[in-house]
TrEMBL record:
Organism: Amycolatopsis saalfeldensis
Domain PucR C-terminal helix-turn-helix, chain residue ranges per copy: 344-397
Molecular function terms, GO-annotated: DNA binding
Keyword DNA-binding: yes
Keywords (A to Z) from UniProt: DNA-binding
PANTHER family given in the database record: CARBOHYDRATE DIACID REGULATOR (PTHR33744), DNA-BINDING TRANSCRIPTIONAL ACTIVATOR ADER (PTHR33744:SF1)
Family statement: Belongs to the CdaR family.
Protein name in the entry: DNA-binding transcriptional regulator, PucR family
Presence of the UniProt keyword DNA-binding in the record: yes
Coiled-coil ranges per UniProt: none
Ranges of residues in domain CdaR GGDEF-like: 189-294
Pfam family of the protein (one): GGDEF_2
InterPro entries the UniProt entry points to: CdaR-like_regulators, CdaR_GGDEF, PucR_C-HTH_dom, PucR_C-HTH_sf
Amino acid sequence: MSWDPPSPRVQELIRLGAEIALRPPPEWIDELDEATLASAAMEPIASDPVLAAATRRTNRSNLVFWAAANLRAPGVPVRANDGEAPLGVARDLVRRGLDESSLDAYRIGQSVAERFWIQIACSLTSDTEELRALLDVSLRSIAAFVDATVASISARMRAERGELTRGSHAERREIVSLLLDGAPITRLRAETRLGYALERTHTAAVLWTDDPDADLRELDRAADALAAAAGELRPLSVLASAATRWVWVHGRPDVAEVRAALDQLPAVRIALGPAAPGVDGFRRSHLDALTTQQMLARLTSVQRLASHDEVELVALLTSAPDRADRFVKRTLGDLEAAPPEVTEAVRTFIAEQGNTSKAAARLFTHRNTLLRRLNRADRLLPRPLAEHPLEVGVALEVLRWRGGD
């Protein structure tokens, strides 16, 4: 698309607006992210920490790309943003089995960005004719830029889809998808094509990174470490996206070994499903690992390793985040903002069923120190701990996984 260049005055106004757009208020970015991820069609993306983070990066990439282009050449058509951020999203969407309908997020983002841009434009001039000319060319520029970017990403998705229909990765992904969907495929055929025994006990894991600068080879090293922790030579690993691996190992990996391996792989996070037998266990363990990953994302948790066994209750309780937040505030009161040593003292005391000696030993602290911290907690709680230890324990678990302490 092309149009007549605007007047020098309008070009200057566009340049001034582009400078503002390059440094948008944080609340604008938050609204843009929320809008692009809020629709029902975007639920598969919003619930996936890797895809959601990539979408947020793409929002920023598109905003900066268009604004920077207009800073250099105000009013000139802007080419498609075919950089690494949007094209990385294209690869991941295809590897998740999503189609071009997921690109509707760009149209939603466009409408939000246009509203912000109109606010900027109205702050630049009170001259009606200047404002009309400014909005005419700039809104056409935004629309043409989004059209070109969506077309570029669609082409990349078609090419990526073609690549994924060939090779061993595509075959593994196809068989695993059939197993997860409960499709009629025989165990023997699946085992032969995967090179992985299905009648045994399985632990599934989701390995991912939300660091855009991470060395993605760390994910494969983490998968190997998970297998070693389960006494296996190699795992069954499927490339779910560029920054995500779906992994299965036989048996139960030693969590302490996995945690030690993660210390050497700082960009990697792991969500573990429970150990479960047979084809049904292969499926259930994977679904529980996904639930665990989604819970960590929902709570913006900083924890890098979590197993479904330890977070199942928290995952259920926080499926409605607003209600979970109200429960925590109502139950803990001022204890929610207490120092970590106080909340950890209460959590450990509850875990040891009210035995102060065992709790103090577990915390490597003196019994009197523990009692002082428990007394402080009682003063901060809306009701004494003895009246509702179960509710307090659950609220503290939410707080722990939410990264609140």
